[in-house]
Amino acid sequence: MSGAVRRDVFREAQQEVKGPARIAPPDLESLGAGVGYVAHFKDAMARVTIDGLRQGRDGLKGEVRIESGPFAGGEFHPLVEARLELASLSQREAWGRRLRARSPGTNWDAVLDSFCSAVIQAEKRLDAPAILLRDAVRPFATGMLLDPLLLAGLPTLWYGDGGTAKSYLGLAAGLSLHLGIPLVGRLTPQQPLRVLYADFEFDAWEHRERMRRLLRLLPGDPSDAMPDIAYIDCRGGTIVSQMDRIRAAARHHASQFLIVDSISYAADGPLNDDETARLYYRILGYIGLPSLSTAHVPKNGEQEAPFGSVHWKNLARLAWHFQVCESQDSNDLVLKLTNKKWSTGGRAQPLGLTVEFRTPGIEIRQASGAALVGQADEQWKRIQSRLRVENGPMTYEEIALALGLEPAQVKARVNEHQDVFVKLSPDEGSRRARVALRTRRNES
């Protein structure tokens, strides 16, 4: 019968008498670091392949194909092909039952257990020997790529309110790296790298037009006047479900740097959950490229804990917070970038950038220090002035009403400047907390 699996009657009879044969550990062949493996079971006449390997919430999983063979002429016959969670015993048992029904002559439970164990151990690098620290191999890129905004070899995070041009600047930074030219202020890349842009928000045409304007090309200029920066549309999925596509695209285009735009859509799980942040950065590690991730955090959110979890900032090696500043020109967007994390040294000084939207191009210049007055800076100073005028404590609601702000904005500014403000308990008979200026009297 065409496509039928040939039965080894002698082996089946032997198993009936002696029980399941012992399965030796497989010969494991890597398809690439963190990509997949092929396991050859000589005793069991089986080959197991896993591709699209990724770290999910319940552990490693991937697309697994199990084949019987080799038979005469080196042929293999497919038995099962589906997604498998390697650490799930219930899934292994279900696979074992299906495989025994199709090819009863093999101890498939032992094959599956041995295969899953071998892959899990290989991914944990349990077989990697210890080395002398002085013998560590220098990575392809080290230090700063775009000083001081992008690190080489480690994840960078840019976060802030919506409307702070993070996507524009991310694309400009990617083009700057890809072409080796300064497009963000006067910042010159330390070395050119091929860039992959993973877009979870917009579409290819939107970014093509942004690229054209950043490079000051005219609408009628030919497409081959643009650089060959790689782009992958990841809308509709998360970075967990898209990881294999991103890695495949990076291999295909020989990409050396990854931009993820943005965490708000790429993350797999509640954004304020610490485990969501940990999983996101584990996936970046499995992809294996230095990266920039942009994040549109809730308006007037906590700067030290994007999305409500400090892990988004702490697990990055470099983090910049974006704020909009006052501008005299409605065509210009003035930004204040504040360094919130720098693992390789002390924090950098705030950086100002002006994004000038002109026809037909977009230009990004460095802004003067005098222009770096962000909305949040202006708000806490107004709160401070109001408390001085009142010469006494006020509730969040009273301050918000007096200044035309939201109570949440007042709370955020008070929390950010606890060296200036002190929180007091509510008055008797009230549930509303109060705020006062910090003085020696209320500190004692």
Q: Could you name the key traits of this structure?
A:
Arc Repressor Mutant, subunit A, Rossmann fold, 444 residues, nine-stranded mixed beta sheet, 19 strands
Brief sketch in words of this structure:
The protein has 444 residues and is an alpha/beta fold. Helices cover 32% and strands 25% of the residues. It has a 9-stranded mixed beta sheet, sandwiched between helices.
Layout of secondary structure:
Layout: H1 9-18, E1 27-30, E2 37-41, E3 46-56, E4 59-68, E5 77-85, H2 89-102, H3 108-124, E6 144-146, E7 150-151, E8 155-160, H4 166-179, E9 195-199, H5 204-214, E10 230-233, H6 239-252, E11 257-261, H7 263-266, H8 274-287, E12 291-296, H9 311-314, E13 318-324, E14 332-342, E15 351-357, E16 362-366, H10 375-390, E17 394-395, H11 396-403, H12 407-416, E18 421-424, E19 434-437, H13 440-443
Parallel strand pairs: 8-12, 8-13, 9-10, 9-11, 11-12
Antiparallel strand pairs: 1-2, 2-3, 3-4, 4-5, 6-7, 13-14, 14-15, 15-16, 17-19, 18-19
What this model shows, in words?
The protein is an alpha/beta fold and 444 residues long. The protein has three domains: 9-124, no CATH class; 144-373, 3-Layer(aba) Sandwich (Rossmann fold); 376-443, Arc Repressor Mutant, subunit A (Orthogonal Bundle), CATH 1.10.10. The protein has 13 helices and 19 strands. The strands form four sheets. A nine-stranded mixed sheet has the order 10-9-11-12-8-13-14-15-16, with helices on both faces. A hairpin with an 8-residue loop joins strand 14 and strand 15 (351-357). Helix 6 runs parallel beside helix 8 (274-287) and helix 10 (375-390) packs across helix 12 (407-416). The termini are far apart. Residues 15-20 have low confidence and may be disordered.
